[in-house]
Amino acid sequence: MTFLLRRLAFYLVTAWAAITLNFFIPRMLPGNPVQSLITRYQGQLSTDATKALYALFGLDEDTSLWQQYLDYWGRLFSGDLGLSFTYFPTPVAEVIEQSLPWTLILVGLSTMVSFTLGTLAGAYLGWRRGRWTDALLPIGSFFSAIPYFWLGLIAIAVLAVAWPLFPSSGGWDGAFVPSWDADFIWSAVYHGALPAITIVISSIAGWMLGMRNMTVTVAAEDYVTVAHAKGLKERTVMFAYAARNAVLPNVSGFALSLGFIVGGTLVTEIVFSYPGIGYILYQGVSAKDYPLMQGVFLIITLSVLAANMLADLAYALLDPRTRQEG
To answer: Which of 4, 135, 184, 263 is 20 to 30 A off residue 177, Cα-Cα?
Structure first.
């Protein structure tokens, strides 16, 4: 219980610090987002309307930065993330609500598939080291070094242009309206297949190489030798003794990946013009959209913290030493 309380206190302080930075960092960027909104309307707004916009977005010059900070916390506790400059006058919460499911489905499923396949393959390669399967390691190293966007561009050129097997951009066919209709779901799956394949190919090698190296290290430990001496089945020794301990670093990395799933694979979503949260974050940064950037960063921060808490719990279950008092 003490372990859990200490970790909870740590994450609460971290959340406060992250939200504070989330407020101040966008305001340190050069430029004036309200002025860019006014420019969009080509000077059609009156002076009173301009002052109202500054007040509406909490950027009134008559209000101190400290008061803006307090007002920001007050809006957070009431669930108000403000209005988006980019999608004005749509609330930020509504923009995120529309984009988040696309990212969760695409990046979430891709990350879980790549983690599962990479971890299982790495455990097998590490346990069967010294065989012909080691020839796969240079291939894995090559793909782990390829950036997402470069592999995405190659995938578009080969599988969407040269051989038009998949669409090159978008999240669904423009002839459909987003719904739970079977035709729309199939269209969304079809458009998301190429980005998903790109993410899996780019990330599976990292999980595989990390698990393989840890399995090789763990296989030389005394408890694995004792397990063999007991006459246990090789599969039991491999999974219950070697893989269970070798997977701990991957669990930590997977938890961080789960947190960043909410942020999306920014470059991949831009390359494929995929309507995920990473793409709207890019638009928000380009337009200096304070409320949208703060809303997206807040969701990402809380997701990463929650994922780290899950990782701590998983560590405590897999390795009792982590919950022992000093």
So the answer is: 263
The alpha carbon of residue 52 and the mean position of all alpha carbons in its chain are separated, in whole angstroms, by 36
Classify 91 as helix, strand or coil: strand
The pTM for the full model equals 0.67
More confident residue, 123 or 177: 123
Any idea what DSSP says for residue 289? -
| pLDDT tens digits for range 159-182 | 888 888 888 777 777 677 667 777
Distances (CA, A) of 173 to 103, 108, 166: 17, 22, 12
Sign of the dihedral through C-alpha 8, 11, 17, 23: negative
Q: In CATH, which superfamily holds the domain spanning 93-323? A: MetI-like (1.10.3720.10)
| Residue 157 DSSP class | I
Domain ranges of the chain: 2-77, 93-323
Rounded Cα distance between 204 and 313, Å, is 24
